[in-house]
Amino acid sequence: MTTQSHPPLTAPDFPAPRRNHDGPETRRTVDRLIALRHRLERTDLRPCDAVDAAFGELVGLCCHPPAGCTAHVLDRIAPHADALRTLASTGEGHMEAHWARRIAGDADPDAALERFPYLGNYHDLVRLETGALAALGLPGPRRAVVLGSGPLPLTGLVLAERYGADVLHVDRDPTAIEAGDAVAAAVGIPARSLVADLDGPLPPELVTELRAADLVLVGALVGTDRAAKDAITARLAAAAPDAVLLVRSAAGLRTLLYPEVTPADLPHLDVLLEVHPRTDVVNSVLVGRPRREDRVPVR
Q1: How is the chain split into domains, by residue range?
Q2: Position with higher pLDDT, 168 vs 14
């Protein structure tokens, strides 16, 4: 998930002067987060003015909280964290499906894509990730597999259009793959796709693709918890021993939107770099390579 680049979604009165205590800013932030949870739970989470406004406020608050209160907020909001993440992931799915239909069905799909309010942020996120590769002296991707591509696979489309990568979109939901294919065809950006569930044994056709890839991008919602992330990256390390893996994560209050992943959660990877943006981009990224001593049979 990304927020709008212009203007920033900074909530009113934030950021506040830096403090590091459990004060009024902490209480106000917790109260607002709980109120947003209840507001969203009274909707079906499908795009409309009320839902868009609530999610905009939620994401803006998570990206731009009062300085110095993050740890206190996370401690107090803990009973609501799982519910907020579930609301965020469900809402994102509805938003992507809505815009995928809108773009693919428009007489001018390129113009419709340009109207997608978060398009610039996908470019920002991919630029951050390719910049992380460059910082490690690694080349840009030539053949990329995007896991958890969703119905609006903008990460893969940006990689294909802006960076010339041969991209494979992978998702466990056939409906999402069908929608993503329709968007790619409508805007004329070449990309391939495959339906595959990463929670079990990897299908042979995916293993073949992974072995040929130089970049594997693991979406933030691929694997719902740390144990699932570990299991999935273990299978990926075995199937793509020579690839670079980009594992999307979150930090600070952004963990109320996406699961946090740390290097310790990925024991089958040598994590070379960890990047936590402090911009309107929500996702952090971990850049790693499979540990050769930890290769295991693909299962």
Answers
A1: 24-108, 119-294
A2: 168
What angle do helix axes 70-104 and 24-41 make, rounded to 10 degrees?
30
DSSP codes of every residue in 40-85 = HHTS---SSHHHHHHHHHHHHHHHSPPTT-HHHHHHHHHHHHHHHH
Q: Which CATH architecture has domain 119-294?
A: 3-Layer(aba) Sandwich (3.40)
Largest pairwise CA distance in the chain: 55
Residues near 135 by beta carbon (within 8 Å), at least 6 away in sequence: 273
pTM score, two decimals?
0.88
For residue 228, count other CB atoms closer than 10 A to its CB: 15
Task: Give the C-alpha separation, 286 to 152, whole Å.
Answer: 23
Residue labelled with tokens 């119905």: 151
Q: Give the whole-angstrom CA distance, residue 1 versus residue 89.
A: 9
